[in-house]
Description:
The chain is an alpha+beta fold.
Amino acid sequence: MFKVDWEKTSITYQPPEGMVEKMVRLAYPDKKLTSFELIAGGCANLNIKIQLENQNQPLILRIYLRDKDAAYREQKLAALIKETVPVPLTHYIGELEGHHFAITEFIPGISLRDLLLGDTPHDLSTIMSEVGTILSKITAHEFPKAGFLNKELEVIPYESSDIIKFAQDCLSDEIVLSALSPEVISLIQKAIEQHATLFPNNDEKHLVHGDFDPANILVDKINNSWVVTGILDWEFAFSGSCLWDVANMLRYAHKMPPEFQNSFIYALQRNGTKLPAHWRTTIHLLNLSSLLDLLKRSAPQRHPHRCADIRELIDNILRELNKMNERIKVQVRRYQDGDAKHIASIYYNTIHTVNAKDYTTEQLNAWAPYHDNYDAWQEKCAKLNPFVAVIEDTIVGFAEFEPDGHIDCFYVHHKFQGAGVGTALMREIEMEAREKLLPRIYAEVSITARPFFESKIFQVIKQQTVQVRGMGLTNFVMEKCLVTCELLSSNHIPSISEAFNQIGWNKPESLFEGYFKEQEAGERIVWVARIQDKFAGYVTLKWQSQYPSFNEQNIHEIMDLNVLPSFRKMGIGSLMLDCAEKEAATKSEVVGIGVGLYAGADGGYGAAQRLYVKRGYIPDGKGVTYNYEPTIPGNSYPLDDDLVLWFTKKLR
């Protein structure tokens, strides 16, 4: 953990004999070197503790193996932040026989890594709180723009898209391809694409340490308390988002007690550092990018431990991202006073970021020329009363839905793409459309949004070019035919029976006439699904089950769920189950269902089995029955509709 097992530079590289003495003589020609000691732990450079004659404090000789300008960058950064951050000052920078080196101040203490992994007693919350406070002081320093720092601390700009492209390029590197399985490569690609908008943008221009982890933080016990005495190794510093440093510090947080992360984050925020709502997702993305870069530069033969650790870290990140996708809670409500400003900002920023890949700058400016006309937005929103999506009190999307089924504006915050916001908004739209018995919903959809709408079973009616402020913009008229659920009436019965007759299923009118009589008597409810006036399926809810176990427990039974083959995979089965479960929940906390065991040419019960499990149904634990009677081991039973496994679901 914390790179402790990684192959170290001090092991793989040794300075030539006599080199240390020559460097010290070059820096201090009038002073004698009395001793020196190689400090283990460096993964990129050599750090050597040196003692000069007649000097009370030792010094550090730092030999740079990669970046010759790093010494100058560290020297100037130390001078810049020394008043607020404990950093070693640089006394001398030189070059000898092609080796770049510096002599810096020595700060006593041990690494925070050694403290955390050792047996020495310490207050984890206190020490991590101090680390968070120090990071807040580091990130308080800002530069004119985001980018890399040269030896003079001048910023060399980069685009945020460069980070994404770099990570994607790493996935095609030979070493990376040999170290990671195709499945893991695919999952990384998917994660980067899904959360691309959550990478930091170019607006963030804070000082970033670049390697802010416990190995580069010194602590010492002063007055019986462990305190931070130094932040080391600034060679990778740049201007950007503080989330890079947060990501580095929390890379191994999953292996530490909760207070390791909690105290660190609390102190960081308490001292004025603002973290975005999606910071947890972003640090995982940044760690993925960094780890891919490390893996790319780590030949397995020379760095077996490093490669193994990186693979384990990547696996954990992918697991955590998957969990986050599952537990992100998007709430959708109606428009409220004060929302207009946020809605206008989402409209403008989403168009100018997310849609930029499919439209020119001129088209984007015509589409959304400004975002601060709040009075106009407030008037429009008050009239249309749009749906508003919220995550943890942050407005992250909105959708305008008109009475005839037209979806006008439908936008998701550019930093919350792929977080389920669009799905939540569409769910609300479809629920309202069904309540109003609308036959369809439709929209004019951008090139960018088309894949999302297609994933929600919208179909393209036509492609068109619309004129907006003198510019032509391509979009698509798309629609989705909606299903309505109605209670069974006598008028439904002939068409239902005929529909089944046409596909060779024996569902005579007498069956549905019996169902209708039971419904009239209050013994059963039957819902009929229709799409554009065409019968699509039905389901029934029996208040008193014939299955003895359900009957004894007063568990109501959902029975006879059927969707015509031509209407499957359109969400009709789920819609009918929604109706039945909602009604069952008015009288009981649990509902039951019986499922056949075979799958036939038309699907049989196979699809139903999968559907019920996905919806939270579990076997009741009493095994299979035939004609409602328990089966006996060793006996033979026909594999037909009467051989059933019973499931239950807790509704509330």
